[in-house]
Design a protein that fits this description.
Blueprint (H helix, E strand, L loop, with lengths): L3 H18 L4 H8 L3 H13 L11 H15 L3 E5 L4 H20 L5 E5 L3 H8 L8 E5 L16 H9 L2 E3 L10 H9 L1 H11 L3 E4 L2 E2 L5 H4 L5 H9 L4 E3 L2 E3 L26 E4 L6 H9 L5 E5 H8 L2
Parallel strand pairs: 1-10, 2-3, 2-5, 3-4, 5-9, 9-10
Antiparallel strand pairs: 6-7, 7-8
Helix pairs in contact: 1-2, 1-3, 2-3, 4-13, 5-6, 6-7
């Protein structure tokens, strides 16, 4: 579990890297870290006093910051945060903290804003860290947690969890995740309520999503949104993972499949805002890469091993 001391150390190293290596001024660093200039001054002073800064940075987190900068340049990203890798659970915890920092940067202000939210364990862990309100925020779900029979999945109702945490107005996605027929899909996606929520999603100032691998252990399978038979068919059709319930191939293209024609979720490629994915682990690397190639995302929070792998592609 990441402690308060870990959080303070992380902030010191990030501030020092941006100031001494990236050449950013203290005001720019304060904006990036979501804090004030005096706090940045104290972070830099503490980094020098504690020996984190000499000629370089004497801490392994510095390599993560270098990876993040290289990923931003390689994949033309608006945001990128790379965190240290530990055990599987600790790495997931670390990535959730990195995502929390970006959420705080975008949401912890008095300005009116719209945040679009997907689903997944990493986002849920991220949101559980939130300790601030953002009452002027509108939170819109980008994917439904409801199956074809109307049953809502607690695990997947991540946008509602965020809205309750930050005390924001909440827009629920007004359709089941997958329609059962083309006619039903047209009915769901053409009604007034659906179009209204879609317009809110299109106005998002920032989007946070998860990225799913495609295996028998994937939540989208275990939670009953697709069957094992559909999983096998999708795999044969070239699908390697999903973003907001859309199944994509290794090139980042949407797979030609019946189920992809029945998804009701928001297509985030329509949005010009920062679209940040939080994902980590060896099983998700190919999907993250395809999401970057397909321009589904322009922001990423991941672990250092995945970052190194992405830099070699």
């Amino acid at each position: 579990m990441i402690t308060e001391d870990d959080i303070r150390l992380d902030q010191k190293v990030r501030a020092a890297w941006m100031y001494y290596i990236a050449g950013q001024n203290q005001s720019e660093i304060a904006t990036q870290l979501g804090t004030s200039r005096p706090v940045v001054q104290r972070l830099l002073a503490a980094a020098k006093e504690e020996g984190i800064v000499s000629i370089g940075l004497n801490h392994p987190v510095a390599s993560c910051l270098n990876y993040a900068q290289m990923l931003k340049e390689k994949y033309d990203l608006i945001e990128c945060s790379v965190v240290p890798a530990f055990t599987r659970d600790m790495t997931l915890d670390s990535v959730s903290f990195g995502c929390y920092q970006l959420m705080k940067k975008y949401l912890h202000s008095d300005e009116d804003k719209v945040v679009g939210v997907g689903s997944g364990l990493t986002l849920k862990k991220t949101i559980r860290r939130i300790d601030f309100d953002s009452a002027n925020t509108r939170c819109v779900a980008l994917i439904s947690a409801m199956n074809a029979d109307g049953k809502c999945n607690y695990y997947d109702d991540v946008p509602l969890l965020l809205a309750s945490k930050i005390q924001a107005n909440y827009y629920q996605w007004p359709a089941p995740r997958y329609a059962q027929t083309s006619l039903e899909h047209q009915m769901w996606c053409s009604n007034r309520l659906f179009n209204n929520v879609s317009d809110v999603a299109l106005d998002a100032d920032v989007i946070f999503v998860g990225i799913g691998a495609l295996t028998q252990d994937s939540p989208i399978v275990k939670d009953g949104f697709i069957t094992l038979e559909q999983l096998e068919t999708l795999t044969l059709q070239g699908a390697i993972g999903e973003i907001l319930g859309r199944f994509i191939d290794a090139s980042g293209d949407v797979v030609e499949s019946d189920i992809n024609n029945l998804i009701t979720s928001f297509d985030i490629r329509r949005s010009p805002c920062p679209r940040i994915a939080a994902a980590c682990g060896e099983d998700k690397r190919r999907v993250i890469f395809s999401a970057l190639k397909g321009k589904w995302i322009n922001g990423l929070v991941t672990d250092e091993h995945t970052a190194r792998w992405l830099l070699t592609r």
